[in-house]
Amino acid sequence: MTGDLLKNWEKKSKERQKIYKNYLQRVSKNTVLRQLPDYHEEAFSKVDCLQCANCCKNFSPRFKTPDIKRLSKLLRLRESDFIETYLKVDEEGDYVANTSPCPFLGADNYCSIYEDRPSDCRRFPYTDEDVIFKRQPLTLKNSTFCPITYYVLEKLVQAEKQG
Questions:
Q1: 137: domain range?
Q2: Which of 8, 70, 87, 95 has the fewest CB atoms within 10 Å, i.e. is most exposed?
Q3: How far is CA 116 from each of CA 72, 88, 153, 161, rounded to the nearest angstrom?
Q4: Structure pTM?
């Protein structure tokens, strides 16, 4: 099954949103936390983010104050100029990229600020931490555009069936 797991994953993910939602609502948090490191690592061994970059192409991380300070310094801009050039405030009051794809994503899917990227980028897709069930709407949304999130959710659901 694992070999075919990522085949047509976008379509399967959309079809299985209700299954994922039900799973995340009832699952034993401790069981998931024990399983996540292995599934996270396995997913990253099967998916090449540089071939995908859906996260950078379609969504923006939050740029928190430490991110803005660090990136402004890196780019030799005043913080106000960095914000004016690259960011906007979203409906939740967070700073996010003002363009899609991300202004720091190159045509080769490499990030020009990778070493200094925002913490949201560093942590994405949160498949090795409790965010996966603490922020369920985010996990469900991520599973529709991130093959790693989809893969980890599928492995968790499969393990529950076998367990």
A1: 2-55+124-162
A2: 8
A3: 10, 19, 29, 40
A4: 0.91
